[in-house]
From TrEMBL, chain A:
<keyword id="KW-0001">2Fe-2S</keyword>
<dbReference type="InterPro" id="IPR001041">
    <property type="entry name" value="2Fe-2S_ferredoxin-type"/>
</dbReference>
<keyword id="KW-0479">Metal-binding</keyword>
<keyword id="KW-0560">Oxidoreductase</keyword>
<dbReference type="InterPro" id="IPR050573">
    <property type="entry name" value="SDH/FRD_Iron-Sulfur"/>
</dbReference>
<dbReference type="Pfam" id="PF13085">
    <property type="entry name" value="Fer2_3"/>
</dbReference>
<dbReference type="GO" id="GO:0051539">
    <property type="term" value="F:4 iron, 4 sulfur cluster binding"/>
</dbReference>
<dbReference type="GO" id="GO:0051538">
    <property type="term" value="F:3 iron, 4 sulfur cluster binding"/>
</dbReference>
<feature type="domain" description="2Fe-2S ferredoxin-type">
    <location>
        <begin position="27"/>
        <end position="121"/>
    </location>
</feature>
UniProtKB/TrEMBL annotation, chain B:
<dbReference type="InterPro" id="IPR014006">
    <property type="entry name" value="Succ_Dhase_FrdA_Gneg"/>
</dbReference>
<dbReference type="InterPro" id="IPR011281">
    <property type="entry name" value="Succ_DH_flav_su_fwd"/>
</dbReference>
<protein>
    <recommendedName>
        <fullName>Succinate dehydrogenase flavoprotein subunit</fullName>
        <ecNumber>1.3.5.1</ecNumber>
    </recommendedName>
</protein>
<dbReference type="InterPro" id="IPR037099">
    <property type="entry name" value="Fum_R/Succ_DH_flav-like_C_sf"/>
</dbReference>
<feature type="domain" description="FAD-dependent oxidoreductase 2 FAD-binding">
    <location>
        <begin position="7"/>
        <end position="409"/>
    </location>
</feature>
<keyword id="KW-0813">Transport</keyword>
<dbReference type="InterPro" id="IPR030664">
    <property type="entry name" value="SdhA/FrdA/AprA"/>
</dbReference>
<dbReference type="GO" id="GO:0008177">
    <property type="term" value="F:succinate dehydrogenase (quinone) activity"/>
</dbReference>
<keyword id="KW-0560">Oxidoreductase</keyword>
């Protein structure tokens, strides 16, 4: 519940240089993009673009610069451009990240910055993959609240602690950075993958939900949680900071404590 | 080309589209056409909350919410619509909770509520806790919850299908007084499948437009790259009016230079704005509710501080959002995302340093006119059978000249639901309207024109020039000179647009082509917005004319209705006809708007 705060002072001394500032530096980068244009060439290939970028620019800005100033055929998904919509997960310097949340200045700009599509999903064009298998796994874990008994006239009550229990996994934006960073998923596309398990977790540990057992049964499948080898790639890849591996472990634990 | 048949086709899969789909999908054969995967929609970027007078933490009632909405919109809100929205807000929140939305909770386990700009107790006495929220990702939770429930109800989605044309027929009809007029009827839509480049015609008894806003006409905006006003643009080109397009909201707290949204909920939780002198300047502009004044007032105050020389930074071009007096744990639990934005994008640690902010183009109050049943109007008195609109694309009008924070998440839920029910009900009794011959002809010609163009103009360059002139001339402060200069640029860009070419000539995932199409919509909408702004010679809500600084109820207490009309000229702009529509009053008389 919102706490009552004293009124802040009407005037304060600001620290010198507050808000940062100064000229925004520019720098040169080489963006090395894994291209795949199935209508013109059969094979994927690397293409380098030399760009001058600004201090606050992100990888997405560099991709836009290529598309808008150099080569309009470069294709990638993006929408919100600030890490909320989950459109622009890609492999940047070999690691899954959102292009809109990765600042160029945080990368080693002395070397080419490599950008390629996420792995494990069918490649369509340049940085675009077919997301359907990913969403199929998501749908299979029944990602919606299932509640038995009478519907209350007002809201269901839930304690602050019960709400907190699954807070972390509600942050998922379905960008597929985790699932497509998972070595098990790369070799076995049937594996549900971390994102589906994260979304199952979000309901299994919601005190309002009554279908936890059904979801645990689904994930107890041979393509379920037991395929996870705890490599933590998913946790490192998550742009929302979700403790993915921990969530998977909690689901494993729930299956065990249920069957014991 | 393929032809599909559905009872109901919904264009857009943000909050309004999916809320509609949950209703219509259970009642009628429904397809949702969306240019993005549903969970990519910009509803997910909304942060602060959704207001409803639940009175869970303090006394409140929906009538106060109605009043705040009307006053917040500077009295050009249709009062019947505001009443519907405030009244149905309560069930809209409860419905979401029942669907599974994880709201933050009070110690008793009820949905928690917090303060938000312009939402007050007892007609302006003090700020009230009305916004139901889930940390600072309420929109994300709404989008996810609605998508989850669409999955639950097996709603059929056509992902990455861009709707590019609305199919309507016209037939002679007679009004009650015997006069003849041309009645439009909806037949379906034409869409472009991004993956294959194929056109798909969807014949439908009902069509719901829920395609969102047009923030990308501006350079500094909280809006996604994909918010290019396609739905408004299609409606306008089809001869439908656009209402109140001069009213565009600039959200006070965009990250300086980037426009990324920092929720008003931050101020709801106690953050305040300061200028370069460290002064909490909102005390001067809105003595009663200060930093929680409505967005138009705060945005103008910020812009004014900057132009009077009290801006911060090397170029003195922003002010500061100060959270440093708040408890870090409090910020961390209530505002985790926005503090991360400040760290990620500006390298500022909000626990210890104030965050640079400046107004960012945020929300179109205007749009496709509808009545409270979400039926689209072809003129002031005539609805189009089977055509509905809800959410930012629509103008009901519940937001008037300035939308209150949280009322957009409310709008999409209340009117999205209404649209889904109404569209399914209409489809149950209606027959399909026969498709016109070669229904895809217009879109084919447009796309082929772009694909085969040998022109020399570049899409990105024109778009940048458009966005820059809109930021410079049609932002928080406007006057005749700035608006005319914007129109001059827009007209020249519209001319140059005829000569654009694209590089990608392929069929698969040709986003180059679609960016060119989207630019066409942006140019049309920028022209309408600016012409309407020039036409409204008064200041009201988000539309502030320095040459007409006062509200003029005598001449301008009316909605504007812009039509594409090749025989008309408005404010020197050929092809636009400007009419007016009366504002609906129920019980609130216009008063001076003070906070």
């Amino acid at each position: 519940m919102s706490t009552e705060l004293p009124e802040p002072p009407s005037k304060i001394e600001l620290k010198a240089g507050v808000g940062g500032g100064g000229e925004i530096p520019t720098f040169n980068i080489t963006l090395r993009v894994r291209r795949y244009l199935p209508e013109t060439t059969a094979e994927a290939y690397w293409e380098d673009f030399k760009l001058t970028m600004y201090g606050t620019d992100r990888v997405l800005d560099a991709l836009h610069k290529v598309k808008w100033d150099h080569d309009g055929s470069l294709s990638f998904r993006r929408s919100c451009a600030h890490g909320i919509c989950g459109s622009d997960a890609m492999r940047i310097n070999g690691r899954n990240r959102l292009a809109c949340k990765t600042l160029l200045k945080d990368l080693d700009t002395s070397k080419p910055i490599t950008v390629e599509a996420i792995k494990g999903l069918p490649l369509e064009k340049d940085l675009i993959v077919d997301m359907e298998p990913f969403f199929q796994s998501y749908r299979e874990i029944m990602p919606f609240l299932i509640s038995k008994g009478h519907e209350p006239t007002k809201e269901r009550y839930q304690s602050v602690e019960d709400r907190e229990r699954f807070d972390d996994t509600t942050k998922c934006i379905l960008c597929a950075a985790c699932t497509s960073s998972c070595p098990v998923f790369w070799t076995d596309g049937q594996y549900f993958g971390p994102a589906a398990i994260v979304n199952a977790h979000r309901f299994i540990f919601d005190s309002r939900d009554d279908a936890g057992d059904m979801r645990l049964e689904i994930l107890n499948d041979k393509e379920g949680v037991w395929r996870c080898r705890t490599t933590f790639n998913c946790t490192e890849a998550c742009p929302r900071g979700i403790q993915v591996t921990k969530a998977i472990a909690e689901v494993k634990q729930a299956i065990l404590s249920r069957t014991v | 080309m393929q032809v599909h048949q559905y009872d109901v086709v919904i264009v857009g899969a943000g909050g309004a589209g999916m809320r509609a789909a949950i209703e219509s999908g259970q009642r009628a054969r429904t397809a949702v056409l969306t240019k993005l995967y549903p969970t990519r929609s910009h509803t997910g970027a909304a942060q602060g909350g959704m207001c409803a007078a639940l009175a869970n933490v303090e006394e409140d009632n929906w009538e106060w919410h109605t009043f705040d909405t009307i006053k917040g919109g500077d009295y050009i809100v249709d009062q019947d619509a505001a009443e519907v929205m405030a009244k149905e807000a309560i069930n809209a929140v409860l419905d979401l909770e029942k669907m599974g939305l994880p709201f933050n909770r009070t110690p008793e386990g009820k949905i928690d509520q917090r303060r938000f700009g312009g939402h007050t107790r007892d007609h302006g006495k003090a700020a009230v806790r009305r916004a139901c929220y889930a940390a600072d990702r309420t929109g994300h939770m709404i989008l996810q919850t609605l998508y989850q429930n669409c999955v639950k109800h097996n709603v059929e989605f056509y992902n990455e299908y861009y709707v590019l044309d609305l199919l309507m027929v016209e037939e002679e009809a007679f009004r009650e007084d015997g006069t003849a007029y041309m009645q439009k009827r909806v037949a379906g839509v034409v869409s472009y499948d991004l993956a294959t480049g194929e056109l798909h015609v969807f014949q439908a008894k009902s069509v719901i437009f829920a395609s969102g806003g047009a923030g990308k006409v501006f350079k500094t905006t909280s809006n996604a790259h994909t918010l290019t006003g396609d739905g408004m643009g299609i409606a306008f080109r089809s001869g439908l009016p656009l209402e109140d397009m001069e009213f565009f909201q600039f959200h006070p707290t965009g990250l300086a230079g980037l426009g990324i949204l920092l929720t008003e909920g931050a101020r709801g939780e106690g953050a305040i704005l300061r200028n370069s002198e460290g002064e909490r300047f909102m005390e001067r502009y809105a003595p009663t509710i200060k930093d929680l004044a409505p967005r138009d007032i705060v945005a103008r105050a910020m812009a004014n501080e900057v132009r009077e020389g009290r801006g911060c930074g090397p170029n003195k071009d922003y002010v500061l959002l100060d959270l440093t007096h708040l408890e870090p744990e409090h910020i961390e639990s209530k505002l985790p995302d926005i503090t991360e934005f400040a760290r990620t994008y500006l390298g500022v640690e909000p626990f210890t340093d104030p965050v640079p902010v400046y107004p960012t183009a945020h929300y179109a109050m205007g749009g496709v006119p509808t009545n409270v049943e979400t039926e689209v109007l072809q003129d002031n008195n005539t609805t189009i059978p089977g055509l509905y609109a809800a959410g930012e694309v629509a103008c009901v009008s519940v937001h008037g000249a300035n939308r209150l924070g949280t009322n957009s998440l409310l709008d999409i839920n209340v009117f999205g639901r209404r649209a889904g029910i109404a569209a399914a009900k209409y489809a149950a009794d209606a027959e399909f309207v026969e498709l016109p011959e070669n229904p895809e002809a217009l879109v084919t010609a447009q796309l082929d024109g772009l694909l085969n163009s040998k022109g020399t103009e570049n899409v990105a360059e024109l778009r940048k020039a458009l966005q820059e002139t809109m930021d410079a001339n049609v932002q928080v402060f406007r006057d005749e000179t700035s608006l005319k200069s914007a129109l001059e640029v827009i007209e020249s860009l519209r001319d140059r647009y005829k000569n654009v070419s694209i590089q990608d000539k392929g069929k698969r995932f040709n986003l180059d082509l679609l960016e060119a199409v989207e630019l066409g919509f942006l140019l049309d909408l920028a022209e309408v917005m600016t012409t309407a702004a020039l036409h409204r010679k008064e200041s009201r809500g988000g539309h502030y004319r320095e040459d007409f600084p006062n509200r003029d109820d005598e001449n301008f207490m009316v909605h504007s209705m812009s039509y594409r009309d090749h025989n008309a000229t408005t404010e020197g702009i050929a092809g636009i006809r400007m009419e007016t529509k009366p504002v609906v009053f129920t019980r609130y008389q216009p008063m001076e708007r003070k906070y």
